[in-house]
């Protein structure tokens, strides 16, 4: 594995000496001018008001008190180092300084951001973001400052490593640095050989695309103490394309494994099993013509899952129960083995749903599955003749009431109702309109026979019967009585309405009422049970 490349020194390796005026600076402007020869009469508070900054500068100049700091001493000193923290003074970090006025007289400044993991930090210590530093409010001071990083730089970029922040400094140095993205890349047997990781997924923002200095770099994912998956990383404007170098790898060796960075490690080398991708950058500063480069290892976590696919197919079947043709596009559902899936029933024009072959919902298994939704083609069938052929149509038109049929694609239930308002309402909820199923009569018709309606509150199914005894028996099993659903006619005046039962139904849709003998026979051929004649329709 390639060691980290270092092209710049760290901490105090670069000091920039600049001459400035004695004017107290503000965050808005600092005008350079000739340094005065004597500062002994100027109180320190008049030109360096921040007490924490005074303490830091006094210690680095070797002075017993801040009162002895002078602009001349500051100008002739080595670079002033502002640390992110120290073992002894947690209240003297660069994050505690809210006013940097006075540092314009320093010959050079270094911001030292060392990894915090090795320090005995107090329990109430809160990590700060690099962007929280107030030095960004003083562009003339940051323009003479070196930003130096060591170790885990995610300590200072907890949300995102924002490269645009580096452009405020003429120099940025990194020594044995790495960025823990804490990203978990989910892969499976179909995707692990070739996948794309966006910079956003890695917690990187404002990556200088023009600064990526190399391409097609190797990286590895170690999956045990001795073996690695070896990839090639190709960099683009938005992320990294990763391609596995070997073609005959046995995926079972990594299936189910999670490979991630060890926590609380001070160095990347302490976690030899950590997968990482090096980001190679040549970087230019906005301050001047300064140019620097570094390679940042980006720690990435990987999880190798197993997925399978459940495909829902939509078929027309004939009356003999044989498949005729596909009538809609397949819908594949892919998920991790052991997770739940739910397939979807379709509303297909010209067809009526019959049943599902397979589990419409369940869990993804170790192998791919196919679920078949069975449909029958809608036909305009001729109703059976009245049982008294000498008196066809003898029921007066004025007492006829159409019974509307609607179908629920979600649970397979059919609703039969004489109320056009109820029919339109339920169709508006997404039920399929199946128009007039048959005809009933008004209660005023002297030969009207009541058909009772019940509702199953557990499954949502409706059931209809002429038999009061059956009505009471079904209600005793927990169904809700809904009274008379509609009125039918005697056998000698009506057309036969057949009832069939689906013994495999586990919810609504277990019963179907139809005037079509063809439809009834077709369902019976598919395994439904013939329950004979339900009642007789006036038309």
Number of domains: 4
Give the overall form.
Answer: elongated
Largest sheet: 7 strands, mixed
State the helicity in percent bands: under 10%
Q: Span from first to last CA?
A: 85 Å
Number of helices: 7
Structural class, judged by helices and strands?
A: mainly beta
Q: Assess the beta-strand content as a share of residues.
A: 35-45%
- Radius of gyration, taken over Cα atoms and rounded to an integer in Å: 40 Å
Number of strands: 28
Stretches where pLDDT is under 50 for at least 5 consecutive residues are: 1-40, 265-272, 388-392
What does the average pLDDT come to?
80
Describe the structure.
The structure is a single chain. This protein is mainly beta. It has four domains: 17-143, no CATH class; 177-305, no CATH class; 311-377, Ubiquitin-like (UB roll) (Roll); 397-537, no CATH class. Helix content is 10%, strand content 37%. It has seven helices and 28 strands. It has helices spanning 44-47, 51-61, 71-76, 139-142, 420-428, 468-476, 517-525, and strands at 80-83, 109-114, 145-152, 161-162, 171-188, 194-198, 204-205, 217-222, 228-235, 239-244, 258-259, 276-284, 291-305, 307-317, 323-336, 340-342, 351-357, 361-363, 369-377, 400-407, 414-417, 432-441, 449-455, 462-465, 480-488, 495-501, 511-514, 529-537. The strands form eight sheets. Strands 1, 2, 3, 5, 11, 12 and 13 form a seven-stranded mixed beta sheet that branches. The chain is elongated and about 125 Å long. Residues 1-40, 265-272 and 388-392 have low confidence and may be disordered.
